Amino acid sequence: MVLYKTYGILTTIQSASAVAFSSFIFVHGSQIALANVGGPDMTNRWLLLGRPFYQDEHTEGLVVTGAITVHVVSGLAKAAIRQYWQGQRKKQLNKSDNDSNEDINTILSVNNKKNTNGLLSYHNVTGYFLIPLCWIHYRLVRELPVKVFGDSSMLDVGIVAWGLQNWPLFTYTVHGALIGTAAYHIISGGATAYQRTFTRKRNSGLTTKKNDSSIATTKKNKKITVIATTGIVLLSGLIIIGRCTQKIPLRNEYASIYSMIFSTK
Question: What Pfam families does the record tag this protein with (predicted)?
């Protein structure tokens, strides 16, 4: 039961960190989407307006790096606990020990929650894919520019536009995959994260009506529609940034940054 309580605490922590990180995602995603309206220039203007929120020395550690680190670590810890439970369950089932029924039921109840909390099928998988994708993007636009320039607050979308124009296969693949998997993962789990963070009592046991299946299907279809729409808007913004950004004064510096992405130095 200690592990069961630990799992619940980790779930709450994971959800709260997701809510914190989603505030940054909303701002940053909106900046990219605005390229559809006013091109790269509008995105750059909104980058300047948004940076005081998510690149402040205090808030960045809370809503960006801190939130995503806590989210990933708590998620990996939960995955390790689930693996342990699955191993214990197999041992208990093989022994056919009636005294272990309570533990088996606990394991089953936790595992079955995944099917009733509104998450889409590949929610966990997209989360794992996001780890390297987010790392590459952060290294490209935050970590390496700090090494090269001493700061990254002066950067605009030119650093991404340079990659889209000169390293198109790599940059489109990374950022296209980042947009798609992030849209899927965040929209899949957003409502659940907010519910777990701000609602103490959940309606677990009250959803046993005959029309539950149709309601779940409707919600799933709505989420997929929102994911597709969000993905198209953001991908369109990315393409506009790549094609319409003409003046990139720091081309040589950006070239060196891209060459350092996978460097260990």
Answer: MCP1_TM
